[in-house]
Amino acid sequence: MFGIGSTELFIIIIVALIVIGPKKLPDLMRTLGKGMAEFKRVSSDVKETFDKEVKKAEKEIKEEEKKLKETVETAVEEKKPEEADKAVGDKPAETATETASTEPVHGTPATDVPANDEPEKSADTVPPTTGKMA
Fold first, then answer.
1. Is the pLDDT assigned to residue 97 strictly greater than 80?
2. For labelling alongside 47, which of 32, 92, 94, 107 has CA 20 to 30 A away?
3. CB 110 within 8 A of CB 102
4. Which residue would you say has higher pLDDT here, 12 or 66?
5. What is the reported pTM?
6. Shortest CA distance to 99 belongs to which of 83, 119, 85, 91?
7. Alpha-carbon separation of residue 93 from 54, 89, 90, 97, 100 (angstroms)
């Protein structure tokens, strides 16, 4: 019950019988039983009320989430036609090679310098000789 063993309960009953007396003990036990029943009933009501309020709050949150999601979807749908009109009316279509040559790849800036550190070799450049003949 409250972590009280049978021997402790027996000692409490004997002490109550001695202190209160055998005439008033049954009335006291009835009053104590009614008080415990009322306490259980009130705690059950509080728990039910709390659960109802939690469910009500969860329902309101879900409704607000749904409204927010619909608002975002509507805003996205309205934005798409505007972007399409701008893309068609503002500039001509680019080819894939034009786009690839001017845009950076994976976060590196587009430059005219070759990827390796060696300078570009032109057709009129002759490699240096070591001076030995074969």
1. no
2. 32
3. yes
4. 66
5. 0.41
6. 91
7. 56, 10, 10, 12, 14
